[in-house]
Amino acid sequence: MDRVKIEKGTSTEERIVELLNSAATDAGDQSRVDHLIKIQELIIHQEPGLLDNFVDEITAFQHDRSADVRKTVVGFIEEACKVDPELLGKVMHSLQLLLGDTSIAVQKRVIQALTQLYKVTLLWLAKAPSVTELMENTWNMLNQMKLQIAKMIDHDNDGVRTIAVKFYEMLIVSQTYPEPDSIRKENEFSLEEIPLTLKVARPRKLEEEAQLMLEDLMKYHGSAHISSANLMACMGSLTHIAKSRPQFLDRIVTAMEMLHANLPPTLSKSQVNSVRKHLKLQLLAILKHPASHERSSNIKTLLGDLGATPQEINKALPSAEEIAKHPRRSERADDSKSGPAAKRRKIEADPVLPVRENPKEKALAITEEFIVQRLTTKGAADLVIEALPNITSSMPPHFPSIYTPISDAGTQSQIRHVARLMASQMTNAGIGPGVAEAGYVPKMGNDFEDDDDDMDDMPGAAVITPGFRGGEDPESAKPGVASIQPPVQIRARQRALKLAEIAKPLTPQMNESMARSALQRVLKAERTAMLGGVAANRQKILASLATLFSGDFKDLVLEYIMADPRLRIELAFSWLYEEYSMVMGFCRQSSIVKDEFRHAAVDSYTSVFCSLVNGLKKQSDLKEREALLSRLFYESPNIPEQGVLILRTMLCDDAKLVDISIQILRQLVQRPSKQLIYLNVLLEISSHENENIRSAVLSCLTDLYDRGALRRVIEDYALMCLKFLLLEEPPALLSGPEKGRSEVVTTWTEEIIKASLYLFLAVLRSNHKLIHELAVVYVQANADIKRKILRMVEGPVEGMGMESPELLKLVETCPKGAETLLIRIIHILTDKYPPSPALVEHVRNIYQQRVPDVRFLIPVLNGLGKKEVLSVLPKLIKLNPDVVKKVFSRLLGTQGDSTATYPSPLSPTELLIALHNIDSTQCDMKTIMKATSICFMERTVYTQEVLAVVMQQLMDQNPLPTLLMRTVLQSLSLYPRLSGFVMNILQRLIVKQVWKQKKVWEGFIKCCQRTKPQSFAVILQLPPQFLQELLNTSPDLKTPLVEHVMTFTENQRMHIPKLTMDVLNGIAQFQAEAEELHNEDSKDREAGSPEPMESAFHGDIEPPAPGDS
Q1: pLDDT tens, residue by residue, 148-207
Q2: Domain named Symplekin/Pta1 N-terminal: which ranges (predicted)?
């Protein structure tokens, strides 16, 4: 791989930090692997001094979801420890975790790394001046992993078994002493490098362990179930061991001879060919070693059987000079006894233990000599004749490919080779004199189970030996026929009594029937056991029987418990704990059995737990049902995943069990090991459609949230649900039967929007900081979602209060587009309570500096000053009529649910007068008229006394307000009793020359029309020319006015001016003069009038309803 190029001006450490950050945040698996490889290149090859600084950060990736990343971490650990062995103490625990990884590829990579690091660790310990506690712990962890890998030679995966074989090979070579003629690689590790004073790893014990490992490897090599790939890997390892440690060469050659005679029966035709070819190559490699010359005849015979040509064999033979340099086996043995102590470096304190002779090899050698002595020409012919009936009529298809002609038939070496092949097969079958003499009993089961030598060594054990007809005559004997010889003639041992051989086996049906009967008897013995004081023992027996058997037995015990669960719940717990013991491997079983049946034990425990819970659920009439269910969840050793699903079902489907289910979850969520699993159940149901279920769950979650332990998880889930509102379609997480919605919803309905908000709004009451997240989502949501948020936010916001720092912060930093939400929040807070000074100040600032939207000021109007309210009044009345009503309600204090007791900045009188005084350039007259009409609708506020004060103050203004007469007419309509006051107003208007303001004059005329005949006295006070205009404008007034005058006495009529009487009698004409005068006086006012007075009073003033005062 190319070296990583460091950018100019960037240190290696900074570059590593940058790569670590990228690896931690990058979503792609391959990119993370690339980053870690670059880091390894930088640290290992450029800056080894940084290893200690970054090893923890890199090993943290051992928990990454990608198997490739975890493999890369293992590779880094391997290279790092080769550079700095002091890191072994830090990383050994990580390797131990990764060895148990769920990924086969990661397991294989860990074994490969340990194949190298094992030697590094031994060398580290050997060179250390003293062994520290860290070193001892590291060595202990490595030994534990060594045992794990040793078991993996029988792993389910073929590749793992191959890697484990290579690990065996490394252990055997590293934990033995080399010979003078050993083929050694450069820097190859051996026991010579370990001092005798190293207590933590004694050389003698390591060598003994290597011997045992070699035996196991040879057993695996000769096992019947081995695959072709594993077999070839095993042959390669044994060949390397034979060349590196010639002291094992004889045993390895013997193992290969036995393999040639007993190939695994599971191999296919092509696999047999591959294995034979590979065996030939390995034997040729061994033949090249000088130490093989003592077994060269056996090897050459084997090679001939395997199809090797004489030229290939002669080419592989070592030269005479090499053989001469190589000492014979006896000479090597003498040298090892008389040589210097440094050669084996053994001390008197460690006595040499005698090497146990392999009984199988001894049996093989004895049987071989037995056959060689008797394998004459006639004996061979008899064997062929005896075997002819067993030969098929057609040649097996694979026979031509494996058969090779025998070139040296009849020679002594070929006879010995045939004898050895026959001896191998006889020994494996458990017959022959060698089996009897050596005491070897072949194992019919797993080759890797420990040999049960105790029974073999018992005195009197009988053996089976071959015999021939007619005594010892080999020519008249039938080979292969076994006979039991008297113990006195063979060995001084007595055959041990084995019941399995003499007892008649029961049928499975009989076994099951007897076991069921026994169980039923124990179940019926409840009263007897209690009287006898052995109830506890009976309970243990029942729990054990229910655990050991399956099917009907478990159903019987379950039915028995459910018949009276209140009294038999302890039996249920005993049963559960017995099942749990099986799951955890507490019972006395071999490791192979534990691994094989662990999954079945887990399934059994799950089935028992779920059956007990479901059985209690169905007993709705049981008073103690809730208490027993609680105990079952609280006191069980483990709650399986299916149990959690049942608990979810109890919560969602059974209304009677909602409270107890939540109570159980509340307690279980406090258990650290699985608290996230139980919390997830509550979180998922927090959006349930059923209000009762949802409310109870939300209450539980808010309580947990307030406690703080799970605050972050709950908050993250709430934010996730909130951000669902930004998706185009609702996620499937919000639908499903567990949410009370059987059909998947694909559009944002009102119910789904509410489901996304329930949990968030619940935790918002406790954490006001989340209001900012709501504002961000509100900005990006669609219109329907925004409307729903505005409706649902009321409850949580009321709990925040106006003094909340986060609320004030939101007012200051309101995101663009969230103004509507902010206004709604402030409205909610000020609907029932007066705005706080701080809130008023913040709202004032945002209005003046950021968002000049007058709607912001509506909620805090009562907190503003009088001048501020008057300045924004023209903008306020331009809003929607409903909004204007709310504005006036706040100013007038007429909010039905308001609890505020402080005065408004404007009195009702000041508000109505201020509306009359709004400049027409700021707001059109029609809008002002609508605003005044809203005021008149508040009759509880605008009484006749208030309106009289308003009219009085308006009359005092100069010029008169345009809408004065409209207000007079509306007041008169609402309160007819004001007619006398209105007459005074009309008289004062004449004094103020009302005809000079056209709009007011038009209103004056209409008012006179409405108040006749009371207004006749006022009309007669008009100057003649304006009286003439009034009569011309309202001709219907003339006749009643004349009639009214005619009712006067003569003296009264004399007080009426003559010109006025002339107008009434139609004599004088002042129309032109009046119009000219009127036009001159009101010329400048007509330009500002938005519309004629008739349009201003187009019949919207209705007479008071009957009964109105």
Answers
A1: 999 898 888 889 999 999 999 999 988 898 887 777 777 778 888 888 888 888 888 899
A2: 104-323
Do 819 and 851 form a contact (C-beta atoms < 8 A)?
yes
> Strand 482-484 to strand 464-466: parallel, antiparallel, or no bridges (unpaired)?
antiparallel
Distances (CA, A) of 57 to 34, 54, 61: 16, 5, 7
Please state, in angstroms and rounded to a whole number, the distance separating the CA atoms of residues 745 and 732: 8
How many C-beta atoms surround the C-beta of residue 952 within 10 A? 14
**8 A C-beta contact, residue 881 and residue 934:** yes
What is the C-alpha separation between 979 and 968, in angstroms, rounded?
A: 10
DSSP annotation of 403 reads: -
Name the DSSP letter for residue 568.
H
What average pLDDT does range 305-328 have in this prediction?
76
Q: What are phi and psi of 483, to 5 degrees?
A: -135, 150
Asked if residues 833 and 795 have their Cβ atoms less than 8 Å apart, the reply is no
Residue 649 makes CB contacts below 8 A (sequence gap 6+) with: none
For 30-67, how does the pLDDT look when each residue is reduced to its tens digit (9 = 90+)? 888 988 898 888 888 888 888 888 888 888 888 888 89
- Coil, helix or strand at residue 39: helix
Query: What does residue 1023 show for φ and ψ, rounded to 5 degrees?
Result: -60, 150
Nearest to 821 by CA among 864, 789, 783: 789
How many alpha carbons fall within 13 Å on the CB side of residue 251? Answer: 21
Q: 């950021």: which residue's tokens?
A: 850
Phi and psi at 1100, nearest 5°, equal -85, 0
| C-alpha closest to that of 1014 among 991, 992, 981, 989 | 981
CA angle 279, 283, 288 (to 5 degrees): 155
| Helices (H) then strands (E): counts for the chain | 60, 2
**What is the average pLDDT across 68-92?**
90
Query: In 3-state terms, what secondary structure has residue 718?
Result: helix
Query: In the chain, how long is the greatest CA-to-CA distance?
Result: 185
- Residue 558 has phi, psi (to 5 degrees) of -65, -45
Enter the pTM of the model: 0.49
Nearest Cα neighbor of 189 from 108, 122, 107, 275 is 122
